[in-house]
Specification:
The structure is a single chain. By secondary structure, the protein is mostly helical. About 75% of the residues lie in helices and about 0% in strands. It is elongated and about 45 Å long. The two termini are about 15 Å apart.
């Protein structure tokens, strides 16, 4: 059980890294936060196509990663 959870956690981490690297950048990062890029924050721009799939897969594998981390920490102290 311990080995299975550990392998699942490592696989979820690697897949999450790949999915995050495949996503398109949404802003200029810290420079946008300092200069006040708030107009993009409240705009109603929806992600379409493959972006939605990448976002959902990233969320799914993040949940899998944290569930595995919780179970490993709780059951195998």
């Amino acid at each position: 059980m311990h080995t299975l959870l550990l392998i699942l956690m490592i696989a979820a981490a690697v897949i999450m890294i790949v999915l995050i690297m495949m996503q398109r950048s949404r802003g200029d990062g810290l420079s946008e936060a300092i200069t006040g890029g708030a107009e993009q924050l409240f705009s109603k721009q929806k992600a379409r196509g493959i972006e939605v799939g990448l976002n959902r897969l990233t969320i799914f594998f993040a949940v899998v990663f944290f569930v595995c981390a919780f179970l490993l920490g709780y059951y195998f102290k």
